[in-house]
Each structure stands twice: as structure tokens, then as C-alpha cells.
Amino acid sequence: MGTAGDIIFSLGAVYLITGLVLIWFAILTVADREHPRRWGSGAFWFILGIIFSAGGMMPHWVTGLLVIAMVTLDGAGQVRHGPAPDRKAEQARHARELGSRIFLPVLAIPTVTFVFALTFRALGLDANRGALVGLGYGSVLAMWIAVRLTRSTVGSLMVEGRRLNELMGSVNILPQLLASLGVIFTAAKLGDFIASGIVRLVPADHLFLFVLANCLSMAVLTMVLGNSFAAFPVIAAGVLVPLVIRPFGADPAAVAILTLSAGATGTLMTPMAANFNLVPVALLGMKSDYSVIRVQIPVAIALWAVHVVLMWSLIRFMR
Description:
Strand content: under 5%
Largest sheet: none
Structural class: mainly alpha
Order of helices and strands: HHHHHHHHHHHHHHHH
């Protein structure tokens, strides 16, 4: 790619677009005189927009101060959603008119993401980065398709986007913050600390108990961080490798993926996994914040137990 292509098809461009959209949301919030916390909520989304659009050009300490400002606004109860008009009848009518075409914006996002990932890979570039860039541009394409299908305007699109964004609230940024916390825990060698406690409690060469401790610590840390991908490096470095893979000669690929998916069961049981468990509650207007979690807990526990038995059997009978 040339210089222009490098800029346009970079994560920086996607972050810039995201930041500008958030700033637009902030302006709409401040302009809404019926909003119960228009200045605080507007400031929150404006700061987040600045971080996305200009974070790469700012010193890290400035970004850190902006994040603290956002946390302060939310902690002070200044981040709220505005009044939501009842448009269920209108939305149902539009859905009937569009029929199966209503899924076109949704399908556009994974399609563009996949195409970008394959293109980056074919060009010898990072396919993971390509997927993220494709996710951004796929979202832009989905917005355009939605406007065309509904014969609406970009202004209406932004108003509805801002409404949905505010319904989800500050939990939108929780995955990023928790992923950062996972990096800090890894650097602080939290996994080594957990492993030292396991070694003191579990008898030497007791495979089942080590597997149990590995899966349990992975699930619990995932519940704390809200993301199994953030918890995995901590547990893999501190527990899985030194206590399971090396002593018992386990297949690293097999036990690693089982450990990761065992952690995913913790995702089903925690409000820290906000994008999975709290966002649907906000969007669907459920009465309890924990409605989704309560339904998922029995399934999660059963799946976690299956992971323990499967990993133990795999190591015990195949080494």
C-alpha cells in the first residue's frame, strides 16, 4: 500500500472515525435540554472521543488523567441516559416492511471484517490488524446500508446511535479497562503468586487437583477481569505451564485451549463481562441487571466441570 493507503487502512483511521462519532454523540447530549445529566454525560463521551481520536498523539500520562476524569464523572453519578421515546410500534412496522433485508447491515460487518483479514494476509500484513480495521469500516458500511434501507438521514442515525450508546452507558469502556488490568496483573506476576498458593495446598504429582486448580483459578480470574483473553496470560504463565504442562508432559495446544474456554465459563457468571451480560439487559430493558447472569450460571458451572474432566482425561490417558 502507498502512503495514503497506509493512513486510510490503518487502525489510526478507525480510531479517528470512532472518536469523531463519540464527539458527535457528546454534542447531541449537551444539546438535549431534557437530559437529566447532559453536561456530565456529554463530558464523559467527549473525553472518550478525544482519547480515541487523538490518544496516539498524546503523552500516556495525559491519557491516564483523562481516563481518571471519566471514572470520576461516572462515580459521581453524572453519566446517565436521556429520555427514550417509545417507538416500539414504529420499529415493528419498519421491521415488517423491510423483511429479511433488515439483516443486511448486521451481515455487512462480519463480511467486510473477513475480507479485510484475508486481504491483509494476502499482502503479507498482520491479518489480526486487518480484521480490526475491517470491523471499523464494516460498521461504517452497515451504517450507510441502514440509512439507505430506512430512507432516513445521517442525523437520525446519529440520534439513534447516541440513544443506544447512552443506554449501554459507561460499561462500554469496561472491556478496554479490564484488558489493561490484565496486562498489569501479568507484569506483576500475579500468576506466580497464585501458583505458590496452589503448590502449598495441593500434594505433589496429583494431576487431577492441579487441573482442578488451573481451571478454577482461570474461571475466577476471568470473573474478576471480565475477559478470559485478559486472564489467560496470567494463568498460563503462572499456573498452566509450570504446574500442568511441564510436570505431566501435557500437550500445550490442547490444554491451553481448554484452559481458555474454561475461563470463558467465568465470563457467563460475572457482571464484569459487561458487553455480554449487562449491555443486553440495558438494551432489552430488563428489570434486573443480573437477569442474563442468573440464567447462565447453571450452564456455566456444568461446562466448567466438563472442562476439568476433559483436561484431566486428556493428560491422564494420552501421555
